[in-house]
Each structure stands twice: as C-alpha cells, then as structure tokens.
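Work Package 4 report. The design task specified in the project plan requires that, given a folded chain encoded as structure tokens, an amino acid be chosen for each position. We show below one input record used in the internal validation round.
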C-alpha cells in the first residue's frame, strides 16, 4: 500500500462540479492499494497517517513535534490507483494495483480504520473510482511518501500482525 501524505492548510474534493469533501488544516492523503496488500499493510499506513509528527508545537520551537491526532486536525483521503503505475515505454501499466472488484472494499476498510482510531467526523474521503478535482493549499510544502512494502521490522508495534515477506504472499488479493 502506498500513501502520499501532504500537510495542508485546506483541501477539498469536487465531483461533477459539487464539493463532496473538504477539510481545514490537516493532511491530504492519496492512497493506492497494491494487488498484494494485506491487513498488516493497512495497519501500518493507518498508524503512520495518524501518528507522523509533521506539525510544529504551539510556540514553533520544534518543527516536527506534533501529529494530526495530537492537534485534532482533519484528514482527507483520496483513492488513487495510479500510485501503482509502471511505465512500459510511454504506456501506463496498472497490473500492480489491486483489482477494482477488491480494492474498493479494501480502501473503504482503511478509511474505517482511520475513523476508528481517531475522531470519525475529522476523517473525510472522496468518491472511490470517480474522476475528482482535488484542490489543496500546501502547508510548507511537506510531502511524505509511504510504502508498506519498504517498512522495516523496527517499525512494527506489538499490535501489528507479523510481517509476511512478499515471496510468501498469495497472488490473489487479501480480504480485510
């Protein structure tokens, strides 16, 4: 699973000319689901979204001191299967992305996990599979790229499922 996390002053998602979600200060998170993602990939990404210290403290003396959760800011999640694009010459190949038949449920389960681990009303999302206009005002800018496949064993908390090496994973998508 991949997540592009951007610290924002505000962000919104518009579909067919209507705003479907908007937030004030917080994080805009673009989420891509791989064909090989499993529950522990989602748990890692959810934990990082909520706990990364991307904000300064109140007096500004420490730049990377507080998380979105610490400050009660908002989170706007947007599904983006193109995060698993590979280029073949100038042609796009999406075979590494999870099939839409499974990825919508997986993505929605991730959003639900974020809501369950935070304040549900502060977690917004776009419309899965829709063509969306995403507007944001970057704060910084601060942009973090996360990939659950590259996490180290030192980043696993006691509540996580054990890591499964990619060679041990089944080729079909896991269900959450």
């Amino acid at each position: 699973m991949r997540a592009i996390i951007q610290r924002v002053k505000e962000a919104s998602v518009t579909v067919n000319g209507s705003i479907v979600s908007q937030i004030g200060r917080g994080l805009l998170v673009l989420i891509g689901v791989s064909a090989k993602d499993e529950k522990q990939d989602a748990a890692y990404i959810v934990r990082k979204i909520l706990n990364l210290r991307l904000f300064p403290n109140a007096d500004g003396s420490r730049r990377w001191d507080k998380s979105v959760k610490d400050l009660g800011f908002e989170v706007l999640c947007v599904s983006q299967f193109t995060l698993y694009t590979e280029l073949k010459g100038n042609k796009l190949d999406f075979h590494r992305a999870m099939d839409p038949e499974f990825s919508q449920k997986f993505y929605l389960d991730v959003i639900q996990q974020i809501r369950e681990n935070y304040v549900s009303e502060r977690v917004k999302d776009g419309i899965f599979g829709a063509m969306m206009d995403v507007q944001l005002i970057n704060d910084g800018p601060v942009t973090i790229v996360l990939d659950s496949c590259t996490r180290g064993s030192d980043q696993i908390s006691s509540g996580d499922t054990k890591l499964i090496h990619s060679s041990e994973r089944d080729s079909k998508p896991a269900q959450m």
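The first helix runs from residue 39 to 51. Validation will be extended to a larger panel in the next phase.
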